[in-house]
Specification:
Helix content is 55%, strand content 12%. It is of the alpha/beta class. It has a five-stranded parallel sheet, sandwiched between helices. Helix 6 packs across helix 7. The longest helix has 25 residues. The protein starts with a strand and ends with a helix.
């Protein structure tokens, strides 16, 4: 089993930037969002459970998840959200661990905005929190999505605080525009390398 690094952080913090740096350094990265979508489309057991709880409208005739319909089922409904997470998250975690065994690399990474909330933290050896100032995160999130500033702020306010995530992490990397990322990345990888040896 390779050494597994978990990458987490809030919306607009720049998790994907760190993932790209790791990828460029030869570290394979498992993107939990992308893989969760694949699993919800391709995993027959997940399909069956979602249809059982939310109706056959969850999927289109060609068995693609109707994300808009499912989002409507869980929006503002904590119990439904918890139910979907209980169906999807354990399977994503299992899929990640299977993936780790197929990748020929001494180090791999997992990117997840909800690493702690989803239970994925137990599947990694080291956790790094990527963070940035709130205004920086808001600007980035608005620029890359169709969300309004108010919607982004609401999402940020619902997340765990940056301080809490940093406290639970092994490393923290500041991704403000005026803070160079590479020296922080190299320092982190040096420490991880020393712990591996």
């Amino acid at each position: 089993m390779p050494i597994r690094i978990g990458i987490t952080g809030g919306i607009g913090s720049g998790k994907s930037v760190l993932s790209r740096i790791l990828h460029c350094a030869g570290v394979p990265v498992y993107d939990c969002d992308t893989e969760a979508k694949r699993i919800m489309n391709d995993n027959a057991e997940v399909r069956e459970l979602l249809v059982q709880h939310f109706g056959k409208e969850c999927y289109t005739p060609d068995l693609q998840l109707d994300r808009k319909y499912l989002a409507g089922c869980i929006f503002g409904n904590v119990e439904n959200l918890r139910l979907v997470n209980s169906i999807v998250h354990p399977r994503v975690k299992d899929d990640f661990l299977l993936w780790c065994n197929t990748v020929k690399s001494p180090v791999v990474a997992m990117e997840s905005a909800i690493l702690f909330e989803s239970g994925f933290s137990g599947a990694v050896d080291f956790i790094v929190c990527v963070y940035a100032d709130k205004e920086v995160c808001i600007t980035r999130a608005c620029k890359r999505s169709s969300l309004s500033r108010e919607e982004v702020v609401r999402r940020i306010d619902k997340q765990s605080s940056t301080e809490k995530i940093i406290e639970q992490s092994d490393f923290s990397i500041c991704n403000n525009p005026d803070t160079p990322l590479l020296p922080q990345f190299e320092k982190m990888m040096g420490i991880i390398g020393d712990k591996i040896l």
